[in-house]
Amino acid sequence: MNYNTSQKIMGDETINKVRKFGVRDKLGYMFGDLGNDFFFILVSSFLMVYYTDIYGISAAFVGILFTVARLWDAVADVTWGRFIDTRKPSKHGKFRPWIFRMSFPLVISGVLMFVHIPGMSNGFYLAYAFVTYILWGTLYSTVNIPYGSMASVITNDPVERTSLSTFRTMGAMLASLIINAVGPLIIFVDNKADADGFFLAAIIFGLLSISSYMASYKLSTERVVMPENNEISHNLGNTIKALLKNKPLIAILGASLIFMMSTMLIGAVNVYLFKDYFNNTAALSIIGIVQTVTVFIAIPLVKPLVAKFGKKETTSVGMLIAAVFYILLFFLPNLSTSQFIAVSAIGMFGYAFFNTMIWAFVTDVIDYHEFLIGIREDGTVYSFYSLARKVGQALAGGIGGITITAIGYDANREVQTQNALDGLYALATIVPGAIYLLIFLILVFLYPLNNQRMKQLTIDLAEKRKNKN
Predict the structure, then answer these.
(1) Which keywords does UniProt give here (predicted)?
(2) CA atoms of 2 and 231, how far apart (whole Å)
(3) Were 212 and a residue from 34, 73, 139, 456 both cysteine, which residue would form a disulfide, CB within 3.0 to 4.6 Å?
(4) What is the domain partition of the chain in residue ranges?
């Protein structure tokens, strides 16, 4: 098999003069996650408060809904990833066509989530929320799985893949910046959730989302196209065995699961924290901007630090910094809004390295899976990684909704009790701090692909591919 990125391999036919990897591919991959996160971040940050304050659904039921939906999505991810791995590539590639086909129904389902019909019964709102949210999550899998898998066929060069990971993070952060800066100004009126504002935000971000998906489709090029391999459809058992033996995959799955859980939890809790604890929903825009700025500060540091120390080593230190400063916030409960944002910004800078490099970790464990089993199964391996993230989302949604109810939050109260306010503060500080500390321990003691071992894996895998051919 030829892995020259200046050629495109499809079966026995070699098509020369394929455009070389460059800025266009990076921008195309960035636009893909920009499209994903225009809705994903809107949902993760504001859907719970939409359900509690607009539909009048209890936070506990919302938590159950999020848990059920994410567990269903996890199954959908693996099913869709396996389905794609058994499909023949088209002339447009193996993954790009699915982004084009499924992005339209995905965005339409996202807008439907924020439709509010006044005067309906509680049962209607519960049923409508359940159906539209499950539908959106399922359709999200049909776009996100091929998009995430596509990185491994845009290029086979580890350095170029790291740049794709960085640009993907840039796309996510740009979406986060826009949504967290502009979103609260649209959806809140006089510090209260507004149904028309939510619907307007869904339409605006939906249009931006579909535009980004189309840009990703047009700008990206799949260069590494595997010849058809009939073994894939008959060896799921071998795949599962290999996945269970893939220690780097298991470790990064665990770290990603709890990192996503923390991200989702913070996103959901921060809305209530700034709305009720700090009485300042405008600060949601500020902290969204700060989070994005910390990532863009970290991005130029990633390449030199990884080149010198390695991905595992750089990311571990970042997670330790995040853990220390979020735990510190818990012991400083009387901070002003600006002081809270300033301290949390240091923690955000720490976990920005994990957030930036996670997709490069995924391509590494996909390579390691190929080394173990001798078959390239990008979609399947990525879908299992996505499964872990969905489980993290499920746990965050469930735990978030249940704990917000448990601390005594009541959407019908004009002013929350002190116990509820203290509980919100704890959920926003000590809980993520403990999670980041756990991720640090996983990376240090359980993730085996340090800088030296990763270099050796690249050599060993190249030799194995050469011998196979």
Answers:
(1) Membrane, Transmembrane, Transmembrane helix, Transport
(2) 20
(3) 34
(4) 23-223+232-468
Residue 158 reports pLDDT greater than 80: no
CA dihedral for 249, 253, 254, 255, sign (positive or negative): positive
Q: Helix (H, G, I), strand (E, B), or coil: what is residue 189?
A: strand
For 177-233, the pLDDT digits (tens) are: 888 788 888 988 887 888 999 999 999 999 999 999 999 999 998 887 655 554 544
Spatial distance between the Cα atoms of 84 and 144, rounded to a whole number of angstroms: 12
How does DSSP assign 154-183, residue by residue?
H---HHHHHHHHHHHHHHHHHHHHHHHHHH
User: Are the CB atoms for 143 and 98 separated by under 8 Å?
Assistant: yes
Give, in degrees to the nearest 5, the angle at Cα 314 between 449 and 242: 20
> For 13, left (φ over 0), alpha (ψ -120 to 50), or beta?
beta
Of 356, 300, 345, 378, nearest to 85 by C-alpha is 378
Structural contact between residues 77 and 145, judged by C-beta atoms closer than 8 angstroms: yes
Measured CA distances, 435 to 396, 398, 399, 451, 469 (Å): 12, 16, 14, 24, 45
What CA–CA distance (Å, rounded) separates 42 from 206?
10
Judge residue 227's burial from the number of C-beta atoms within 10 Å of its C-beta, 0-12 exposed, 13-18 middle, 19 or more buried: exposed
CATH T-level assignment (fold) for domain 23-223+232-468: Growth Hormone; Chain: A; (1.20.1250)
164 and 154 in contact (C-beta within 8 Å)? yes
Q: Over the range 442-453, which residues count as b (16 or more CB within 10 Å of their CB) and which as e? A: bbeeebebbeeb
Count how many residues are written for the chain. 469
Alpha helices of 374-445 — where are they, by DSSP H?
378-406, 418-445
The type of residue at 339 is: Q
Query: Which residue type sits at 80?
Result: W
